[in-house]
Amino acid sequence: PFVMWTFHTSSCKIRKLKNIIVHLSRPAEYIKSKRKIMNKIIIPRINLLPHTRPSAVANIQGNSTHPLLHSTALFYHTAMGGILIQVEAFHLPDDDLPDHSGFFGMHIHEHGNCTLPFDQTGSHYNPTDEPHPNHAGDFPPLLSNHGYAWTAFYDARLTIEDCIGRSIIIHGGKDDFTTQPSGNSGDKIGCGVIQAL
């Protein structure tokens, strides 16, 4: 995995900055010498959430083929504009996948109607008429391990008001981020209506 570090300093000379970069490119050396250079590094803190209570929620239920599937999606206002979305899902159908792990497409759809078989949800929420995967309702996929997934991400394209009254859908396959209009993500296996709190 990659770790991105952001520095802001007005006192370090170019030579010292180069030394810091070298240390970060060699993690073992950086750890050994971090006490020497930490006083040169200022890591800014961002208070992303002005409130810890979510502003909206969707309780996602599985379809008739996946009745045990259930998930909760929480939607938070942020201090930067946009929203933070947190999703936890259980009993995703990854039993037949290698190592019981796989990706499942997830999107916001236009209509908040989760009547089985979830065929009344409309298309991906796409107010600016963009191609997939640039719809406002296009989300990162869920990564499932032994049926469980947890994710959180920031989305500047949406507001809480955009989401309320729409549906969040979990699909039975991974989103290929190419196929139009919806990424060839497979059947809608989970659906929940986004409601204000």
Shape: globular
Q: Report the C-alpha radius of gyration, rounded.
A: 21 Å
- Tell me the number of strands: 9
- Poorly predicted tracts of residues: 1-27
Strand order of the largest sheet: 5-8-9-1-2-3-7
SSE order: HHEEEEEEEHEE
- Helix fraction, binned, reads 10-25%
Tell me, rounded to a whole number, the average pLDDT: 82
The amount of beta strand, in percent, is 25-35%
Distance between the termini: 36 Å
Largest sheet: 7 strands, antiparallel
Task: Label this structure with key terms.
197 residues, alpha+beta, two-stranded antiparallel sheet, 3 helices, 14% helix, disordered N terminus
A few lines on this structure:
It is built from 3 helices and 9 strands. The protein is α+β, with helices and mostly antiparallel strands and 197 residues long.
